[in-house]
Amino acid sequence: MIRTEKATKQFGTLLAVDHVDTEIHEGSVFGLIGSNGAGKSTFLRMLAGILAPDEGIVRIDEQEVYENEEIKKRCFYISDEQFFFPNSTPDDMKNYYKTFYPNFDEARYRMLMDGFGLDGNRKIRTFSKGMKKQVSVICGLSACTDYLFCDETFDGLDPVARQTIKGLFAGDVADRGLTPVIASHNLRELEDICDHVGLLHRGGILFSRDLDDMKLGLHKVQLILRQPPEGDPFAGIEVLKREQRGSLYTITARGTREQLEERMTVLQPAFYEMLPLTLEEIFISETEVAGYDLKKLLL
Ligand SMILES: Nc1ncnc2c1ncn2[C@@H]1O[C@H](COP(=O)(O)OP(=O)(O)OP(=O)(O)O)[C@@H](O)[C@H]1O
């Protein structure tokens, strides 16, 4: 299990990660989401033991991660800025990783390289952006580590490669309890594979929850009121977003389906419907509440 307590990273006076507490359980798929500059890459690099926290604790199975070789052998980090030795081929990288990762599976590496149609002897610098990503992911999956840290890994991959890699991740989670931690802006992608999501905003964690629970605790309701209400029809409910066009209201509110249905029974609307929220809508609502609203630039 990964556990952080008040994990903090500062660059000069800039607080990139601000006292973050979180737990990531084995065999779960953890999605790390957040606005640009929120601290996702920095946090991921702390989890992978690349950056030391300035304050707080970053532990895997109760051991500090930074400069801990035994723990690092159980973690593979796929950076958003691809890392390859100058002039190297995929096979060179594979040989390097083989010396570090005790469970590196060469047969799997070969099978995946062939499957993706990649030449292990070609210089990586001659590969396209997406092909370089594929090489990183293939090395990451072949290293057979317990934890896989992915920074914008699906970015730049074509839809077939994305689906295939998502399937490979899911297979490793089911077969050998792999724990992927994936930072991404592609929330639709995350929604497919993650069971837990942490939202970082300005270095701090806004929430960290099961995706299903998150969806059960936030709803969008559209309703038409028969008569103009006296006072606020939603008083007592935590409404994150509200729009009104005549008698048609659309609200995004916290609460269970049952709690909101109860309010509908009191309001007796001419019509109402509860709409499921996507992860993208949840992200926008929660970050707007935290003061991140770029829509104002459009006005
Ligand atoms: N090496 C560094 N030196 C100075 N500041 C840094 C460094 N790395 C990151 N930062 C700053 O830390 C903050 C968090 O950056 P980080 O890359 O972790 O954000 P992010 O959530 O991954 O962003 P994005 O979604 O845009 O990739 C930013 O303000 C960034 O400028």
UniProtKB/TrEMBL annotation:
Superkingdom classification of source: Bacteria
UniProt-listed InterPro entries: AAA+_ATPase, ABC_transporter-like_ATP-bd, ABC_Transporter_VariousFunc, P-loop_NTPase
Nucleotide-binding listed as a keyword: yes
Entry's transmembrane regions: none
Domain spans labelled ABC transporter: 2-227
A Pfam short name: ABC_tran
MF terms (GO), sorted A to Z: ATP binding; ATP hydrolysis activity
Keyword line: ATP-binding, Nucleotide-binding, Transport
Protein's UniProt name: ABC transporter domain-containing protein
Native organism: Butyricicoccus pullicaecorum 1.2
